[in-house]
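Problem: given the chain below (306 residues), write out its structure.
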Amino acid sequence: MITLIVPTRNRAHTLRLVAPSYFVQDGVSEIVFVIDGGDDETPQLIDRLAAGHAGIHTQVLRHETRLGAAQARNTGVAASRNEFILFCDDDEYLEAGYARTCLQKLATPGVGAVSGRRVYMEDGETPAGAVHRFGHGLRPGPAFRPLLCEYVNAARYAGDIRLPLTNAVILTHKHLLCRFPYDPHYARGNGYREESDFQMNLYVHGYDIVASNDCHSIHLPPAQVRSGGQRTQRLQRIYWSIHYTRYFFAKYYPGYAARLGLRAPRWLAVAAFAAFAVYRETVRPPLYALAKWALRQRRVEPALPT
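Solution.
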């Protein structure tokens, strides 16, 4: 059976929406919520939800002070009762069958962790509507950028693919988490690379990470998520993304590059990522907004008279 672990901090407003989807996952017999120094009504909310699902062992653990999502994951693993561990963020729905589908794929030899596709909802969208719009992806091009060590979440691909890393909503083995625990170093700022550290540790030790189109997690739209690492200021996001990528590459780049056959030196990879981080936070958002506006104009443009 599977233990679902959810790190959270002052997110009762999002858990109220998404947590019901956790309690109906096939194969999940235990859910562990780890409150990382928060002080809102999350415990009371979880108690109400758990009362309607007596067959699921529900734990609410608490860090008295903020230690970061990585340490919250480790705390949840230490308290878990099952061999398989599924992580979910506290602002994402899990599609029905997510846990069961990932468990089937984790049985493949050489696979250390499995995720579905992450879909970002737009304002006014339902989870089902978001999944339908997403399909097998929204953008052409590769699903992974080796020099940047970046998974392209919206890339178009069919079926399952093997990658060095994927999104944070993964199923894996408890014994691997005990061998390669999450690194608490990523506790400050936006925590960039926090969820990738464990996955890359698996990858450099010979395991594959699978991302599958057969199940989805559905992320709430920004208007419904009022706090968190991605709500930090733009310049802070740039700083912490580069800071943590330098740390991440210092740990893993030699083994990562060797397994992938990447010949670029580490300094070049860091420089390329720094340029990308600036572009992503400054240039890309207005370009995306313009493209969305143009698409909407095409959709609502009245037909010309004949």
